[in-house]
Amino acid sequence: MLQTFTPDCLPLLIGSFPMNDHLAASRLIMNYTPAIPLWIQLPVFPEEGMVPQFLPGMPGVVSQGGKTFIDTAAKSFDDDLLLFFEDYMATHEDPDRLAASRFALTETTGKGVAALLDTLGRMETQPMAVKGQVTGPVTFCTGVKDQDGRAIFYNETLREAAVKHLTLNARWQIRTLSGPGCPVIIFIDEPALAGFGSSELISISKEEILGCLREVIDAIHADGGLAGIHVCANTDWSLVLESGADIVNFDAYAYFDRFVLYGSQIREFLEAGRFLAWGIVPTLNPEEIERETVDSLYAAMMERFRQIESLGIAPATLRAQSFITPSCGVGSLSLDLATRVLALTRDLSVKIRDSYDRI
Question: Which conformational region is residue 231 in: left (phi greater than 0), alpha (psi within -120 to 50 degrees), or beta?
Answer without folding.
Answer: beta
